[in-house]
Amino acid sequence: SHWIKVVLRVTKTEEGMVSMSSIFYFFRESLTGFTRNLSTTLGSIITIFLSLLIIGIFCIGGAVVNNVVASVENQVSITAFVADEASQEDIQNVMNQIQGYAGVESVSFTDKDQALENFRQSTSNPEIVDQLDGQNPLPASIDVELAEAQSVTDVANQIVANQDFVSVCDNPDDPADSLNYGQNTVDKLFSLTNAIRIAGIALIALLIVIAFIFINNTIRLAILARRKEIAIMRLVGASNGFIRGPFLAEGSLHAIIGSLLAILVLEIVRNVVLPQISIALPWLPVSVDFSMFMLIYVALIVAGLVIGLLGSAF
Hints:
- By secondary structure, the chain is α+β, with helices and mostly antiparallel strands.
- Helix content is 71%, strand content 9%.
- It has a four-stranded antiparallel beta sheet. Strands 1-2 form a two-stranded antiparallel ribbon.
- Helix 3 (38-75) runs antiparallel to helix 9 (183-225) and helix 9 packs antiparallel against helix 11 (240-280).
């Protein structure tokens, strides 16, 4: 009799749609279903929570990796060592030519004295410089800053092929030996980050499928538990939309709770874990903008709702 009264109270607005009172009924019934199969419901929520949490962690990790890559790219430059006997006029001529290469942002010159002072400031044992007895073994260099790290190989090849540079470099027999740049390190870093992204996408897809299947099974069990009630509702004229509504609302409820739990843990990561990592590893750029976190949170809620609704709909 309860279901007959509920169905008869429903005000149909059009085919497949119901009134606002029915919407409240959907969510009230979803709360009832929430407690009816508590163990299965908790399993569904935990699955969504863990899936979205790992997705969120991978997104944050991806942002950190991008920061690291950008930091390394900013440090990529070409140092071209020149011979001590090279004239300043010839060096300036080579610098002007390099400045015209595509991908070059700026070109500067470091003389021998400045090179030694830079070494003194960068080394952890500056006393080594004092032991040189006034000798300066470091060569002068042409320093090339790049607009894009990916262009370092092309620029380096052009410098090596430049005969004017060969005439002033400190090793004219092997001009490539007079260049110093970190392209190998950048290439390895790019390969590593690409592998991490591919593995992350595969894992995220797997977690989404697992969460989808778990919600689907949860709703399936709820339907089986209420099959007699559903039969009665069909007999008294309830529409398919009215019958499906509570199950869709229940799946959405699972997804929202799982999403909020994942966001709560990620907030702890943002406010506690990342600051501690920054203190322990000050050289590692692990800071992520709050706007990026907000974007991740919105994406997790939307992804959770999509998973919940699709799992329930099937």
